[in-house]
Amino acid sequence: MSGTEWAARPDSRKHLLLTETADVFRDVVGEGVRHVAARVGEAVRPTTGPDPDELRAEIASIDLDRPLSDSAEALAELDDIYLRDAVYFHHPRYLAHLVPPVAIPALLGEAVLSALNSSLDTWDQSTGAMLIEQRLIRWITRRAGFGESSSGIFTSGGTQSNLQALMLARDTALARRAPTPGERWRVLPKLRVLASEQAHFSVVKSARTLGLGDSAVVRVSTDSRYRMRPDALEQAVFRCYAEGAVPIAVVATAGTTDFGAIDPLPALAEACRRHQLWLHVDAAYGGGLLVSARRERLAGIENADSVAVDFHKSYFQPVSCAALLVADEASLRHVAYYADYLNPEDSGVPNLVDKSLQTSRRADAVKLWLTLRVLGAEGIGALFDEAVDLAHATWRLLRADERFTVLAEPELSTVVFRWVGGYGMTDQECDAANQHAYSALFDSGAAMIAKTKIDRRVCLKFTLLNPNTTLQDIAAVLDLVAGHCANHLVLADAEPLLPEVS
Ligand SMILES: *Cc1c(COP(=O)(O)O)cnc(C)c1O
Q: Belongs to which family (predicted)?
């Protein structure tokens, strides 16, 4: 290649973080942080309620093969297509999903870990970051009541934690029951995982991914507060045996997505011990109790074989930050695979890739580390407890409000309710009104709430994680919901008249 051809190339190098561009990095990212801070500071509602078609067209019109001149221009464009209409989870009237406002020390961690770009697969890429992760795993396994032989690994979230846990359960069972490959293929379709009707859908997805199939997940019924019934579990195990199926694991949920219900861990642990089943506790949401004043609600978790915790839910961390904990480090051998080019078995140094489903992996632990060093465990737990307190106050408010029915008393920080304010309405009309209120609220941007179905009926849901949300916010949003529902009734009544008018 000639010298002129070299010269004709764009000078991309100035956009890489290199020795001589360290100050460019500081200026560009510094400007970006100032911009985001301004957006966050001025957000007067959780979202603008953007129209997906409009936004899609705007994004589609951008020519990705024709770059802008610099990062400042790119940020301005990003502001148009993303920041302006984004959902601002820190807003006190964002009440929809399990996404918290994020801890500022964790954001500092994000800046550090992505600039350094440590990848936690091997010791020679991560050094201190890897030891930080392992120290945090030790810290959280102690809080869970696990013993000396426990271990764990940071994951991308509850979905990955559940998948890996069920993989360990599957391979532990197969190692015991079907030592040869031929036997494994014969046994595989018979394996069953028991989980409550309220368990997270990632349990079924995991079974699918692991070659067990959707129907390998046996749904166990729940009590009036949506917790797994131990007697129903017992019956389900015996039904498996009667059908010639092989139950291998129970997934207990500690904090279901809808109700925050915590399955009775001591009774389930006892059943698992008797039937030699792997007990996985999906505490993706309820794991926050490990640092809260309500720690006793997780009593029995110390008897689990594995636990999923999402720090990006109840520990106020930005996505992703989560972990899978295991009671017995040896069980992690089922994910280990040794490659000469990466992690030879005789490397003599610890390589976390041996414990993870991922290879390249972010140093997400750094975020939790900085948060703990600044807030302390109790500081994090107190924030979560505030959300749980608010959920209780909200539940009492709803109980006293004739416009609504409220479902189970909250165990964590969600409240499920339904508007029933109209006279002589059918269930279907009620469904439609609640559905309408949910969408109308999003479109207006005034508040965001969630929607679910309980016993086939449309219900609305508050998921509370923001200590800035007050009971006055809740009351105001309930008035908005009631207004939209009543409006919908008026509109629905008016509709049959429309053809006559036209
Ligand atoms: C959120 C959640 C999950 C999924 O976790 P991700 O981090 O979104 O992958 C699994 N189980 C429960 C109970 C959850 O609340």
A: Belongs to the group II decarboxylase family.
Amino acid in position 205? K
Give SS3 for 463: strand
Return the pLDDT at 500: 41
Query: E strands of 139-206, at which residues?
Result: 151-155, 191-196
Alpha carbon distance 137, 153 (integer Å) = 7
Q: How many CA atoms lie within 13 A of 338 on its CB side?
A: 8
Fold of 119-364: Aspartate Aminotransferase; domain 2 (3.40.640)
**Which residue out of 217, 285, 463 has the highest number of ligand 1 atoms within 8 Å of its CB and is therefore the one to mutate?**
285
If you search the block for the tokens 């509709």, which residue do you land on? Answer: 495
Name the CATH code of domain 378-493 (choices 2.40.50.140, 3.40.50.1450, 1.10.760.10, 3.90.1150.10). Answer: 3.90.1150.10
Q: Is residue 314 in contact with ligand 1, taking CB distance under 6 Å?
A: no
Highest CATH level, class, for 3-88: mainly alpha
Low-confidence residues of the chain: pLDDT under 70: 1-8, 494-502
pLDDT in tens, 321-351: 999 999 999 999 888 888 777 777 877 777 8
State if residue 463 touches ligand 1 by the CB under 6 angstroms criterion: no
